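Subgroup meeting minutes
Present: P.N., E.W., G.H.
Scribe: E.W.

1. P.N. recapped why we're keeping a running log of single-chain structure predictions: easier to compare across weeks, and new members can see raw inputs and outputs side by side.
2. G.H. added today's entry (293 aa).
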Amino acid sequence: YTLSLHDALPISLYHKAIVFMTSAYLSITMMNVFVKMASDTLPASETLFSRFLLGLLFLFPFMMKDRDFSVEKSQWKFLILRNLAGVSSMLINFYVVKFLPLSISILLINTSALFIPVLLLIFRQKTPFNVLICSVLGFIGVSIILLTNHNNAVDPLYVLIGLSGALLTAMAYISLQELNKHNSPKNIVFYFHLIGTLIPPIFFFHQWKIPNLPELGLLLFVGIFGLIFQLLLTRAFKHAPANVITPFAFTGVIFSSLCDWLIWDNVPTLYFWIGAFVIIVSVSLLTKIQAKK
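Output recorded in log:
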C-alpha cells in the first residue's frame, strides 16, 4: 500500500498532505476543547455562531474581490440541503460535546462516511455490496463502544444524538458532491458560513447571554481554531486525493483522547480503542473503494 502511494504521488507532496491533514485535526480537536469549556456556561448555538462569524468575516473580502456570489437555479436545492444539514450537524456536535468525552464526540463526527452508502441505497442509487459491508462493520465498531459501557461513563442517548449529527453530515456531503460540479469551493464555503451565521440568532437568540471576558476568549478560540481547520484541510486536499489522506482524519481521535486524559482526567477504555479501530478500518476501506470508482 505504501509503495503504491509513493508511486502515485511525489513523496514530498504526500508528506505535506499528511502534515496538513494531521494539523487540521489537531486544530479541530482544539476547537472542540474550547467548545466543551464554553458549554459550561454558554448555549451551543451561541458558540456555533462565533465559529461561523469569524470564518465569514475572513471570507467576505475575498468574495467581494472575486464577485463569486452566483448560484445556478438548478443548484439551489442542493445548496439549501447542504447548508441546513451541515449547520444542524455542527449544532448537534456542539451540543453533545458537553455531555460526552471529547474522544467519543470526535469519533462520532467521523462516522458520517458510514451513513453515505446507506443514504444512497435509500435514494435507490446503486451501492456495491462491499461498500455496505464496510458500513455495517463501522456500525459494529460504534456498538462495541456503546455496549461495553460498563461504568455508565457514556450516556447512550447522547451517542445516538451524535450519530444523528453524523447522518446530517452525510446528507450535507452528498449535496456537496453535486454543488462541486457547478460552483467554486470558495463560493460553497462562503454560503455555508453565511447560513451558519444567520440561523443561530434567528432561532436561538432568546437563549443567549452577553459573554464575560473569559467566555469571550473561549468563543474567540473556537472561531480561530475552526478557521485554521478549514484552511489546513483545504491545503491537505490540494496536495493529495481524499483516499490517501482521509484515514489521517482519525488522528483527531488520538488528540482528543489525550485532551480527555490531560484536561478532564477521563481515560478511554480498551473497548473504546477496539471500537475506534473497527470504525477507522471500515472508513479507510470505504475511502479506498470509492477512490477506485
